[in-house]
User: Which sequence fits this backbone?
């Protein structure tokens, strides 16, 4: 028996729609936690890492919506993310009690920005944010780290953040990253992928094994957050 099903959906976004996919666990009536995911500056929702994570999440009992938005303007991306969140809330066949935002690279910047915006209105909207390869600065341009980390530093204390980053990521200086984490009010967990690049690839290791390791860390983390909430 399949552990989940994936359905192609259209997310209303102004006068057009965003391409999206909804992964639903086999026992949909037991779904209480949802995760929204989106891609980085390149690629789309079927980028291998997102596809792998979405399927792992749904196989573990979590509802997962991932979507494509190729605009490179962060404000535009945040609006698209908001549209995805609105769409997920409209699915009345699920009783979602816990919401997590996530994304890869630029996608997690959009996720963080929206989580911060929503937290200004209500404390209970988003429980946590999953940041895959947060791009703290462009390669070789570490001076951008303050501006790029502003939303992270403004997240409230009740929110949790998981960072998954490679130790060889040229867009995430370790010293600057550690300094940013100290400045954050939110609860932070960090998983450093040894030898991992910005694309979370590791020389000498199978990509599938790396993805399994990353997915396992994320699922364990979400379950830990659920336990805190209940």
Assistant:
């Amino acid at each position: 028996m399949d552990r989940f099903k994936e359905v192609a959906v259209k997310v209303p976004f102004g006068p057009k729609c965003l391409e999206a996919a909804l992964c639903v666990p086999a026992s949909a009536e037991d779904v209480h936690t949802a995760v929204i995911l989106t891609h980085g500056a390149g690629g789309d929702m079927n980028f291998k890492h997102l596809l792998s994570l979405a399927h792992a999440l749904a196989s573990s009992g979590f509802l997962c919506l991932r979507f494509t938005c190729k605009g490179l303007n962060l404000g535009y991306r945040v609006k698209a993310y908001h549209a995805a969140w609105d769409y997920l809330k409209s699915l009345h066949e699920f009783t979602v009690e816990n919401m997590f935002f996530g994304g890869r690279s630029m996608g997690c910047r959009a996720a963080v920005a929206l989580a911060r915006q929503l937290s200004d209105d209500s404390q209970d909207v988003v429980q946590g944010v999953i940041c895959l390869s947060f791009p703290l600065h462009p390669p070789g341009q570490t001076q951008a780290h303050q501006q790029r980390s502003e939303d992270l530093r403004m997240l409230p204390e009740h929110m949790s953040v998981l960072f998954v980053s490679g130790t060889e990521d040229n867009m995430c200086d370790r010293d600057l990253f550690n300094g940013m984490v100290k400045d954050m009010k939110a609860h932070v967990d960090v998983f450093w992928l040894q030898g991992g690049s910005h694309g979370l690839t590791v020389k000498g290791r199978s990509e599938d094994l790396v993805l399994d390791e990353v997915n396992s860390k994320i699922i364990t983390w979400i379950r830990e957050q659920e336990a805190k909430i209940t």
User: Anything to note?
Assistant: The CA atoms of residues 81 and 111 lie 7 Å apart. The helical segments are 48-59, 74-89, 106-119, 145-148, 150-154, 174-183, 207-229.
